């Protein structure tokens, strides 16, 4: 029997855009939780640039277009979604709200948004699936305990998850100085419940001279392209690789038979100094030549950002921090409201650029500032100063 759903909470009247949630969320979160959810790696250059790069990229309006019969539907892996805005996998959501992922899946269901559930969720993957009224994908790390990973995949399949999102850009965690300064530790009662029972990594022999990491058991157990082939043999579910940021890895993934790619720099939480995801999207799109779907996360704060990502080759996008801040502020209502705001802004941006469906969104809608990545396709008239 489904458990009682989380109670809906009131949304502050002052909120008109998703970034308006941030101060409300900050006031409701501990210093440690804020450092974990809002922070990034090292100097947080990539974290900031994910948003700033969208702001540098401009749109070209179109007038007098026939907009009758428009919609925002998108089909991925045999599933049809009302709009191309997904909830990204975010760990330990009970850090910001007592219902955690159960409130998020209620908000996603209300807006018929796809949700990617984290391996490190603070609620059992089966319990989340039991409350879902929308499509769920399961985000997976290949663990050092490969048999535990196998069992986790089987659990996700049995619970009805419809795709696997394999995160490949974090064989080790980033240097998250903001978390270190805040003294972040998980509070009592919050854990990665889906990883209970996993065998701990065995200590290695002495690591390489002068290094605490290289040569360690941690990196010796890190997944490789061979493990991707192993995973492919475990499941018939579509497999997406999350964390691809260049054309070489995109082509290799394509050759390995993956079903989709997510252009992602882990929200600026792993390797600081990477480019923004929107800046490399066109490079990755050119490498795969439309042979598989591309998604993007990192820096989406407006529906117009969604349109920009679709114009550069994405089929859909994922948002992380915005819905987490909505969750912290107003629970399931906040999550649903964040999605509603982004979808409404996307529809307005589509109307003002003359697009009545996602298929009509293309690079000709973009106006490029001087110094934008040269791999981006040029609109008519070339690069704009």
Automatic annotation (TrEMBL):
UniProt KW keywords: Flavoprotein, FMN, Oxidoreductase
Short name of any one Pfam family annotated for the protein: FMN_dh
Residues at which FMN binds: 89-91, 118, 139, 242, 264, 297-301, 320-321
InterPro entries noted in UniProt: Aldolase_TIM, Alpha-hydoxy_acid_DH_FMN, FMN-dep_DH, FMN_HAD
Binding, glyoxylate: 36, 141, 167, 176, 266, 269
Source organism, top-level taxon: Bacteria
Active site: 266 (proton acceptor)
Domain FMN hydroxy acid dehydrogenase, first and last residues per copy: 10-371
Cofactor(s), names only, from the UniProt record: FMN
Any GO MF annotation of the entry: FMN binding
Family: Belongs to the FMN-dependent alpha-hydroxy acid dehydrogenase family.
Name used for this protein in its record: 4-hydroxymandelate oxidase
Species assigned in the record: Pseudomonas linyingensis
């Amino acid at each position: 029997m489904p458990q009682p759903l989380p109670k809906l909470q009131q949304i502050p009247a002052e909120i008109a855009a998703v970034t308006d949630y941030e101060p409300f969320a900050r006031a409701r979160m501990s210093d440690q939780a804020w450092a974990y959810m809002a922070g990034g790696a090292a100097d947080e250059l990539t974290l900031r640039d994910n948003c700033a790069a969208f702001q540098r990229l401009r749109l070209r309006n179109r007038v007098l277009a026939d907009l009758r019969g428009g919609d925002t539907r998108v089909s991925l892996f045999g599933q049809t979604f009302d709009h191309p805005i997904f909830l990204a996998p975010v760990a330990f959501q009970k850090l910001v709200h007592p219902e955690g992922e159960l409130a998020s899946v209620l908000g996603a269901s209300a807006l018929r948004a796809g949700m990617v559930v984290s391996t490190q969720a603070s609620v059992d993957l089966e319990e989340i699936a039991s409350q879902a009224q929308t499509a769920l994908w399961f985000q997976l790390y290949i663990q050092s305990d490969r048999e535990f990973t196998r069992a986790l995949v089987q659990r996700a399949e049995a619970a009805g998850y419809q795709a696997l999102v394999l995160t490949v850009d974090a064989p080790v965690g980033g240097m998250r100085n903001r978390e270190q300064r805040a003294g972040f530790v998980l509070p009592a009662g919050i854990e990665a419940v889906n990883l209970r029972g996993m065998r701990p990594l065995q200590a290695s022999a002495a690591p390489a001279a002068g290094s605490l990491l290289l040569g360690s058991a941690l990196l010796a157990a890190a997944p490789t392209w061979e493990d991707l082939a192993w995973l492919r043999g475990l499941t018939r579910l579509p497999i997406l690789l999350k964390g691809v940021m260049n054309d070489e890895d995109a082509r290799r993934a394509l050759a390995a038979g993956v079903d989709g790619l997510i252009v992602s720099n882990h929200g600026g939480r792993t390797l600081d100094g990477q480019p923004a995801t929107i800046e490399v999207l066109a490079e990755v799109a050119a490498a795969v030549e439309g042979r598989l779907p591309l998604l993007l996360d990192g820096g989406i704060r407006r529906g117009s950002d969604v349109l920009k990502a679709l114009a550069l080759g994405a089929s859909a996008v994922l948002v992380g921090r915005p819905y987490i801040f909505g969750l912290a502020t107003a629970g399931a209502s906040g999550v649903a409201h964040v999605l509603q705001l982004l979808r409404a802004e996307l529809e307005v941006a589509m109307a003002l650029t003359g697009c009545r469906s996602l298929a009509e969104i293309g690079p000709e809608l973009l106006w490029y500032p001087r110094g934008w990545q040269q791999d981006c396709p040029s609109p008519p008239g070339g690069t704009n100063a």
